[in-house]
Structure formats: C-alpha cells, structure tokens
Amino acid sequence: MRKAISPIIATILLIVVSLALISIMLSWGSEFVSKNTAAADNTVDADCVGSYVNFISCVYDISEETVTVNIINTGKTDFKQDQNFNVSIIDKDKQVDFSHTNVLDSNALVIGESDYFVITDYNGPSPITVQLRNMYCPLNYWQTKCS
Predict the structure, then answer these.
(1) Average model confidence (pLDDT) across the chain
(2) Among 16, 75, 84, 28, which Cα is nearest to 48's?
(3) Helix or strand or coil: residue 35?
C-alpha cells in the first residue's frame, strides 16, 4: 500500500506544477498581447486609413524655376484648414529639399475637392519627384514624378 501512494502524490504534484506554469504563461501572454496591440493602435491612426491625395498634374518649369502641382483629395479623409501640407522635392541626383511647408496656405482639402500650389525659386536638376505629406496623417505620403 505504501508504494501506491508515492506515484499518486507525484502525479498530483506534476499536475499542480503544470497548472501553475500554464497560468503564469497565460498571464504573461495576455499582458504581452494587450500591451503590443495598444502600441500598434497608437502607430496607426484609424482616421488616416483610406486617406489619399491624387496628383492631377505636376509641371517643373526649369526656365521659370517653378513647380506647379494640381492635386485632388480622392480618399476618405477631409483635411481641415489647420492640417498643413508639406512638400519634399527629390531631384535626379537624390538631393532632397524639405523647405516647402504649408503649401496650400492653410486651405482645407475636403473629399473630392482639388487645389494647386506653386513652388517658386526651385532650380534642381530634372526630373524631380514631389512628395506630399499632411500634418494630420504624417505617416502617409503621396508622390509623383514631374517633368
């Protein structure tokens, strides 16, 4: 009878230790998942999903040193007056000009609306790429090549 008690106690102890380890792993796992999904929610702004600006035209006039860009809001986000658009220009030598801010002069750009802006005194080598970013959705950008 004495030998039968020892394997039963060992089995019960193994089950108890296994359950304790499982509960610790589940507790850590649920905290890990909730913390990382919260961090992911902060990096992706739900209001910016589906935001899109389409380029109607982009003309770089080297002789006049101007870049004229026509855009239209074809996405699902209204850009309000205080949500400025900034432009980066990348020339054929991969030199980047970040100096063009608030190119729509604080005008709103609602869904379906178009607008244009002119950048003056730009004299980089052609062709150029124009990147457009909005302060409301800083992770999104749109770009086009200008001739």
Answers:
(1) 86
(2) 75
(3) helix
Tracing tokens 């080297």 back to the chain, one arrives at 62
Q: Is 32 helix (H, G, I), strand (E, B) or coil?
A: helix
State how far the Cα of 142 lies from the Cα of 119, in Å rounded to an integer: 17
Q: Is 143 helix (H, G, I), strand (E, B) or coil?
A: strand
Taking a C-beta distance cutoff of 8 angstroms, is the pair 37, 78 a contact?
no
Report how far apart, in Å, the C-alpha atoms of 63 and of each of 11, 50, 80, 145, 146 are. Answer: 88, 37, 34, 18, 15
Residue range 55-64, pLDDT digits in tens: 999 999 999 9
Task: Say whether pLDDT at 42 is over 70.
Answer: no
pTM over 0.85: no
Name the β-bridge partners of 133: 86, 141
Determine the Cα–Cα distance for residues 55 and 69; give it in Å rounded to an integer: 7
